[in-house]
Structure formats: C-alpha cells, structure tokens
Amino acid sequence: MAVQINPSILSADFARLADEAKAVDGADWLHVDVMDNHFVPNLTLGVPVVESLARATDTPLDCHLMIEAPDRWAPQYVEAGASSVTFHVEAAAAPVRLAREIRAKGARASMALRPATPIEPYEDLLPELDMLLIMTVEPGFGGQAFLDIMLPKIRRTRELISKHGLELWLQVDGGVSASTIEQCAEAGADVFVAGSAVYGAEDPAEAVRALRAQAEAVTKTAAWACDH
C-alpha cells in the first residue's frame, strides 16, 4: 500500500491557511482538526473554514471531527468540500449508518479510536470504512509526545485488516515525526498525520518528502506489507 503524508493544519498559521496549504506541496491530503470544546477541551474551526479552504487548495481535505454528535454534523463537512471525514466511534450514535451516509455523499468514511478505545469490538464494522484512525496521543491538542504503547494496537488493527482482506487505510495521528514514523510504519500504519513535524520545519514541503521517504523505506521490508 502507498504511504501517504497528511500535514495537520492545527500546527499551521490560521491567519494564512491558503498559503500554508501551498507550503506543503507534495502532501497527499491536508488534515483538518475540527474540535468543539465538548468532545475535547479545545475549540478550533468548523464548516465555514473548511468550505473556504476547499476552494483555496487542490489538495484533498481529510477532516477529523473531534466533536459530539458527529451523526448530525459529519455530512455537512462532506458538503463543505471534505474528501474524507473521520468521526470518533466514542461519539457516534450509529457508526455504521454514519459511515454509509458519508460514503453516499461522495467522501471516504473513516472512524477514529482514542488511545483507551480497543479495536476488537469494532472488527465487524471495518468493511464499512475506508480508513481507520488510531490516535497516538489523547485528542485535543497538537504538539503532544507520541504514545508508543499504541504500537501493539496498530499491529492488531493491521492484522484484522489483513484477516478480512480489506483495502482499508490505517492512519496514525499524534506525535508523528522523524523519530516515530518508522515505528508506526513497521507496526502497520500507511497514512501519517504530522503537524509540528511539518509546519515547525524550516521547509514544510521538504519535511513531507523526508517523512515519506522514511516511511516508504520501512514499509518495503515490513512483515505486514510483504504479506499483503
């Protein structure tokens, strides 16, 4: 599976979002963190900003909804221009119905798990999804340290994906950097959200290229990729 790098605009300059989108030329997606100050203790942006950003960039938007009532709000982000919408299973009332609605509206459906949420109870839901997001920090703030205790969970998730023969992307978000991306790739992740590691770099586009090269080198020899 192809490695994908998704810079998180949570670490970008919100006053210059259009320019910051251009600064990561070569990125696969722009990761947009939507927080409501209820599901997580932080408030970021909403539908109007996503709508404006979608008009300002050709890079597809990967919206991560850290919000309550995603069943109500997620479809609006597809309408605003998001090409992928991630909801948290802990907040969704009907995750299968929501995933199907997101897909029906023309976007990729993705489900996120907080660090303490196990993957195993949701094994039967995996065919309904295009991507699964394993949080490698507690959601709510950028710049946190990577939780290496999530690596076994990434491995178990990759095993479930392989067991069912699914073309499901496995994303990691939180503390992904030059010092942690190789561990994530070896464990089975193929989509990497990077915030401060990209936007905190002198040359964000070069940071994207360097992270991609690191992940690709590991993926070539990773046991899960060889088995796929």
From TrEMBL:
Which CDD domains does this entry report, sorted A to Z?
RPE
| Signal sequence range | none
A GO biological process held by the record: pentose-phosphate shunt
How are cofactors bound according to the entry's free-text note? Binds 1 divalent metal cation per subunit.
* Entry EC no(s): 5.1.3.1
The record's annotation in InterPro entries points to:
Aldolase_TIM, Ribul_P_3_epim, Ribul_P_3_epim-like, RibuloseP-bd_barrel
Spell out the catalytic residues: D33, D173
Instruction: Report residues binding substrate.
Output: S8, H64, G140, F141, G142, G143, D173, G174, G175, G195, S196
- Identify the pathway: Carbohydrate degradation
Q: Which reaction does it catalyse?
A: D-ribulose 5-phosphate = D-xylulose 5-phosphate
Give the residues the record marks as binding a divalent metal cation: H31, D33, H64, D173
Pfam families registered for this protein in UniProt: Ribul_P_3_epim (PF00834)
Q: Which UniProt keywords apply?
A: Carbohydrate metabolism, Cobalt, Isomerase, Manganese, Metal-binding, Zinc
What is the required cofactor set for this protein?
A: Co(2+); a divalent metal cation; Zn(2+); Fe(2+)
Q: Which GO terms describe its cellular component?
A: cytoplasm
User: What functional role does this protein have?
Assistant: Catalyzes the reversible epimerization of D-ribulose 5-phosphate to D-xylulose 5-phosphate.
The family assignment reads: Belongs to the ribulose-phosphate 3-epimerase family.
Q: Know the name of this protein?
A: Ribulose-phosphate 3-epimerase
Organism of origin? Streptomyces curacoi
What gene makes this protein?
rpe
